[in-house]
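Supplementary Methods. Inverse-folding protocol.

Structures were first reduced to a discrete structure-token string of length 273. This string, shown here, constituted the complete conditioning input.
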């Protein structure tokens, strides 16, 4: 059964947050194994403003992965409420959650999750196919997305013909092609070398400069250092929440060239007839 955006808008609660893209209210997650109950999340409350770039850190067993699954609508909380872009997703059906994942969340995974025997362009088109976008329109949108990460010339290459860093750039292009409310990146540099990791993080910085909302899951401090805000999770709770720079500021480790390029483009748009 298809779910329309209007149906989800109707389900938006009247007490939904007005400015935050993400609002977690006392989120708890308990896994019942039959013999014991494992409390993975113990009352997590978190608000992410539109245009913020947040890194969530935590060691193995901290609850970081469970939190990521809930943020990505891959799992639902046992208790608490989760608003994403004004929609209370904590009580939606599986079909409605699938619609949310395809339209409001852009996923970037460590393992890329690309279809092996399909071109880069076709991989980027997949969310648009699921969204019933016309072929001509989705081809144009996917190509634009690939060009934005510097892969326009590799649109018809298979994933096996691309380096790890290039495959991750295809994944990012796929994540942004639907213009989602949030980009959710799970250890996006975990399988990459230092040079490729730096390039990928500069792409995230570019997306942040464009006003996109990014939540990045990582255990690496040097990767979290690119974010505007760092949240540390331990034992299923938020241990610390540090604001590095304001939401409206550039990311702390962004390349100055990127800032200059975006400022120049914005200025040209403002002065063009």
């Amino acid at each position: 059964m298809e779910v329309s955006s209007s149906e989800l808008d109707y389900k938006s609660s009247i007490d939904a947050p007005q400015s935050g893209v993400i609002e977690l209210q006392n989120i708890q997650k308990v896994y019942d194994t039959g013999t014991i109950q494992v409390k993975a999340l113990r009352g997590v409350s978190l608000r992410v403003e539109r245009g913020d770039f947040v890194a969530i850190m935590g060691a193995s067993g901290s609850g970081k992965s469970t939190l990521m699954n809930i943020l990505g609508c891959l799992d639902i909380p046992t208790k608490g409420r989760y608003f994403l872009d004004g929609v209370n997703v904590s009580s939606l059906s599986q079909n409605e959650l699938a619609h949310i994942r395809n339209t409001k969340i852009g996923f970037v995974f460590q393992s890329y999750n690309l279809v092996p025997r399909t071109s880069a362009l076709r991989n980027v088109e997949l969310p648009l196919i699921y969204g019933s976008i016309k072929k001509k329109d989705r081809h144009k949108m996917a190509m634009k997305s690939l060009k934005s990460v510097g892969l326009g010339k590799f649109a018809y290459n298979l994933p096996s013909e691309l380096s790890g860093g290039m495959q991750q750039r295809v994944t990012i292009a796929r994540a942004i092609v639907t213009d989602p409310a949030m980009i959710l990146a799970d250890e996006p540099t975990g399988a990459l070398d230092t040079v490729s990791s730096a390039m990928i993080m500069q792409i995230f910085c570019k997306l942040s400069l464009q006003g996109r909302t990014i939540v990045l899951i990582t255990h690496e401090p040097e990767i979290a250092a690119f974010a505007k805000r760092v949240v540390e999770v331990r034992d299923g709770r938020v241990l610390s929440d540090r604001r590095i720079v304001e939401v409206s500021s550039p990311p702390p480790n962004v390349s100055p060239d990127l800032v200059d390029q975006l400022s120049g483009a914005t200025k040209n748009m403002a002065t063009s007839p």
